[in-house]
Amino acid sequence: MTKARILLVEDDQGLVELLTFHFEREEFELDTTPDGDEALLIARESPPDVVILDWMIEGTSGIEVCRRLRRLPETANVPIIMLTARGEEADRIRGLETGADDYVTKPFSPRELIARVGAVLRRVRPALAGEQLAYADIEMDLVGHKVKRGGESVQLGPTEFRLLRHFLEHPGRVFSRERLLDSVWGHDSDIELRTVDVHIRRLRKAVNIGGRADIIRTVRSAGYALDSEGAV
Questions:
Q1: What's the whole-model pTM score?
Q2: Is residue 195 packed enough to be buried (19+ CB in 10 Å), middle (13-18) or exposed (0-12)?
Q3: 102 φ, ψ to 5°?
Q4: pLDDT tens, 146-174?
Q5: CA neighbor of 86 nearest in space, from 99, 59, 105, 100
Q6: In the chain, alpha helices (H)
């Protein structure tokens, strides 16, 4: 099962090395940067599964990075864990009100942070919890390679199955065509971007059976998302 990819925004190099060791030992993928502006670029170009964000960093402050990530369609639903020496209640409240999902105060144990990451991932990425994926009225059996919507069987081709699985693992997240090519077809794929649109249309036709609401949302100039709230 694919492990989550984490973006660690931290300017304490010793802490970065410590966390890199512990997260990679747990088979997480880890991108790191000490700079808030670079973090925004990385997150926008290739949205991570979780952002661990220090409050006091180089460039744009952590709290402002959090605010901007929440405004970007690509990262609006990415879990953010604030990591900081600020322990005052007012600071914690400010971080949470800005959009952070959790708050860890230094000093802390790497095991605690890994546990916090696991907790937020289980809420937003059900693939980490077992062999069944579900969102709204869609159910996917990863072992039996079966899909149902509203209890009715949905017939999907292999590519549409992988595409839907990716969406189910990241419900609500907006993915660009480029990111979908990397994630579903693979980094070495020579497939054109418009091929993504073709398979999205096929997936829509299959899952919107019986006149059901379109659960795949198109975000202009951004990409696609699995979003029941946007269904019409």
A1: 0.57
A2: middle
A3: -155, 170
A4: 899 988 999 998 899 999 999 988 888 88
A5: 105
A6: 13-25, 36-45, 62-71, 89-98, 110-124, 158-169, 177-180, 193-207
Per 3-state DSSP, the chain is made up of helix, strand and coil in percentages (nearest 5) of 45, 20, 35
Residue 154's beta-bridge partner residues? 147
Crossing angle of helices 158-169 and 193-207, rounded to 10°? 90
Q: Which residues contact 134 (CB under 8 A, 6 or more apart)?
A: 126, 140, 168
Measured between its terminal Cα atoms, the distance across the chain in Å is 33
3-state secondary structure of 60: coil
Question: How many residues are recorded in the chain?
Answer: 232
Answer yes or no: are the C-beta atoms of 87 and 95 closer than 8 Å. no
DSSP 2: P
> What domains are defined for the chain?
5-124 (3.40.50.2300), 129-226 (1.10.10.10)
> What residues in the chain have per-residue pLDDT under 70?
1-3, 86-89, 92, 123-131, 187-190, 230-232
